[in-house]
Design goal:
Elements lengths: L2 E10 L4 E8 L3 E7 L12 E3 L2 E5 L17 H18 L4 E6 L2 E6 L7 E3 L6 E9 L2 E13 L15 E5 L7 E5 L4 E3 L13 E6 L5 H12 L1 H7 L6 E5 L2 H13 L5 H29 L2 E4 L13 H11 L11 H14 L3 H11 L12 H19 L4 E7 L3 H10 L8 E7 L3 E3 L15 H4 L4 H14 L11 H9 L1
Parallel strand pairs: 3-19, 11-15, 11-17, 15-16, 17-18
Antiparallel strand pairs: 1-2, 2-3, 4-5, 5-8, 6-7, 7-9, 8-9, 9-10, 10-18, 12-13, 12-14
Amino acid sequence: MTQSNIIPLGVSPGRKMYALLKLFKQGFFALEERKNLSLRDSSSDWIRCAHQSIGVCNRKTNDSTDRVLYMSSSSRRKYFKRSLNLMESLMGSRDQFSLSNGEFRISGKGDEGTDILSSDQIKGEYYFPFAFYENNELKGGAYLNFKSIGDSKQVEHLSSKGITEFHTGGCFFGSTMVGIDQFGKEHSLTNPHYQIPDNVTIVSIVAQPDLHPDEVLTRESLKNFVVLLKCLAKDGQPILNYHLPEDNYLLYALNWYAHGALSDNAFHEYVAHVRQRSADMRTFLSELADAQGITVVYRSSLESLNFRSYDSHRFLAELVSDYGLSGVSDLTLPDKLLPLFKDRLLFCGSSEAKTLWHEALNTECESIKHFNSLLDLNYIDYSASLALSVVSSEDSRVCSLLPLQEAPVVHFYKKLFANSLPNKELLYIQWLPPFLVHIEDFQERAFYISDYLDLLSEVSLTFFIRECFMLTASQVDLRSDLNVNYESFLKSIIA
């Protein structure tokens, strides 16, 4: 990777570290921290994402400074050849990729002069730069990795077998919502790895009104990918199956409530915040769909749990009624709730969803804790909802469009559902997010950023994200008259 000048943001009062943004000409910017701005760290030529080191993997070079090399091993050559074979099947070429659909066009490159990116840890993932056009006007771009899952027949060209339905999703809040316990201490309510300590009860909720950087990234990426959707879509009419995690967040609340970690008041506040953020996202998606001619469908395998009431007090009362409980006190018995929810998933709802949950709950999977908690149902839903998009589509080709950090969604789809859907093809497009976090404490994900929110609020993340998508596109479109290049981006920041 090629590093630019770093851009200092300031000093974090809590961490006593310099916060800075580091730019890469391929179209990425990373939040980092250092004790001294004059020091250059050893990983400065890399981007880090989802605990993976990603660097340039040019086909023509054997330069040891690249460290991720096409020529470094026979296994890498094999995987790279496999990637090129798939691109040839999908787009008819192994080094110049192009696809048009009316006024929409995408172009990509995989030739020897192109900065192809690859993971140091996963040999089979190669990311090619793409540019997106509408009426020959450059609109955006991204580094994309294509994979095909299922349907063992020859993969068909995208122009002869387009895609009707796409599947994606996004999370809420990040670190902008916390719980306050009886001692006044803050606790994360969105980090799935955080355990609320025993003998602690959350008594109130604090949620910031502004979007978290991860939510900004989600929305800007959806805008960026409109051209991609319309270009790949059969007849140019894409259906976007969006996984809105409203039910998932409510499962979190019910899990804490059942274990006594949420007071009644905190539960009601939490539900209200989740409902409002979900409504805001629906409004955004509705406006995007109306403006771009996209059909949005909300897809969740948890629908049969029937979390329907928007009033948090009625929400609990309806659960008591729907599940035949004796009273709200029964909702504080986690061992009683779990089998009730399992039965609802297995025996209610659509036939497709019931079949998928039977498949999931009867599959041995070491990574899932034998479905012994409400949160295990939540984790499986992300992959089950993708499977629901696949199995519900009349067309046999569905496309998943998810960033690298959401790779577990497809991983568990393959483990739990793919074998039962041999005649369904899932085209999996994995993209590299332009906004990265090179800080281990936040698990290298924008979703977990907390200490730098005030500093980042002074930066136009929307502008940075859009410009980085365009910088990636400029790896493909080399026209000199384009006002999209590394130097102009730097000048605009300095100005």
